[in-house]
């Protein structure tokens, strides 16, 4: 199949899950980027025929189980992100990398708003101010994540 590297998608999602589980010092934990959202964003933009809302929901449930968060929280957050990405994919693909990074940063900020809203509705403890810095990290990491995943996907296709 042309343009299809069957192992690149599951490998990148697995690595994103592992990066989300790696323990960090408490002082920098709030700065942890939402790796799973960055990886999902790449695949929704580049392979919309393979990665959609169902995939986002599925990996969100897996992440909820792996991270021990409320079942369905990350699934909801990732589905919301995937929906917005699908809606604006045609435009986003042709943005320069700097504008793409800003758009991804805005999506990650939206994700934080959804998470904060869920915490508020559920009566969970209030999130610290540092909670809002993670989208900035995602914005800064989008170019290398995009280039790395693109190299993985394209490199896998060339080897076939």
TrEMBL record:
UniProt GO BP: regulation of cell shape
Localisation per UniProt entry: Cell inner membrane; Cell membrane
Top-rank taxon: Bacteria
Bilayer topology term: Multi-pass membrane protein
UniProt keyword terms in alphabetical order: Cell inner membrane, Cell membrane, Cell shape, Membrane, Transmembrane, Transmembrane helix
TM annotation in the entry: 51-71, 129-152
Any one cellular-component term (Gene Ontology): plasma membrane
Pfam families membership: MreD
Role this protein plays: Involved in formation of the rod shape of the cell. May also contribute to regulation of formation of penicillin-binding proteins.
Family, per entry: Belongs to the MreD family.
PANTHER family linked to this entry: ROD SHAPE-DETERMINING PROTEIN MRED
NCBIfam families: shape_MreD
Protein name: Rod shape-determining protein MreD
Species assigned in the record: Cognatilysobacter bugurensis
């Amino acid at each position: 199949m042309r343009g299809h590297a069957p192992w690149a998608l599951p490998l990148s999602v697995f690595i994103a899950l592992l990066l989300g589980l790696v323990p960090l010092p408490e002082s920098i934990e709030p700065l942890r980027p939402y790796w799973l959202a960055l990886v999902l964003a790449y695949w929704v933009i580049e392979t919309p025929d393979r990665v959609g809302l169902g995939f986002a929901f599925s990996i969100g449930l897996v992440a909820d189980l792996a991270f021990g968060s409320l079942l369905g929280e990350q699934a909801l957050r990732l589905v919301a992100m995937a929906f917005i990405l699908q809606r604006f994919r045609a435009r986003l693909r042709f943005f320069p990398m700097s504008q793409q990074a800003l758009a991804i940063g805005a999506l990650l900020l939206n994700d934080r708003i959804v998470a904060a809203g869920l915490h508020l509705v559920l009566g969970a403890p209030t999130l610290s101010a540092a909670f809002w810095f993670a989208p900035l990290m995602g914005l800064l990491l989008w170019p290398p994540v995009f280039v790395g995943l693109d190299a993985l996907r394209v490199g896998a296709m060339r080897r076939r």
